Amino acid sequence: MSSTTSSVKESFEDFYSEVKEIEKRDSVLTPKQQIERLLRPGSTYFNLNPFEVLQVDPENSLEEIKKKYRRLSILVHPDKNIDDSERAQQAFEIINRAWKTLENEETRKKCLDIYEEAKERTDHMIEQKRKKQKKDGRIAEGIPEDDPEKYKHAVYVMTMKLFADMERKRQHLETRDMEERKRKREAEIEQEEQMSFEKEWAKNFEESRQNRVDSWKSFQSGSKEKKKKKIMGFKPPKPKPESR
Q: Whole-model pTM?
């Protein structure tokens, strides 16, 4: 085989490998796969991380994130997925929510702070692993996170954990706040019922006042009449004759 033929073959193989990589990468971005990814089991927690939702690196610029958001929103748009419009709508809303989170400077900073904390915790974990290896005399073996891809995955896992912890804390505070509002409302209702009862009692008392007065007057009048009759009907005893 001539060197020219060999060179052409190598170029074709390189081109073919590159095409396969592009196909592999783009296959993840098909509408169906994106919808499945965003609605897969456990997505409730996965989708807490807006970087994960939009498949962007936290260190990407806002402009790069925006481009990815537009691309994904078009892929999963309900109008583009008529055969699965209901699930597509859910995926579309998830993507929009993630973009709004990262578009806002304040919420994006909070997400970046979580990412930085994840890296710090991962680095601390790695440091502890190295110390243990050194103590065991196995420092030369290295650790899995020495591989950049495995280190990146460790940070990814830690980031997901922190987002999940934050959501659980939010839910706990929300539940506690809801219960507090419920207790407060129940106390207000009880107070309102007590005030209503007292108001009704006062009203009834006032309305029955005249009846009580009339009854008392009638009673008093009846008592005087009885006394008068008793006095008028009184007969003094006959005097007894004196005995001598």
A: 0.59
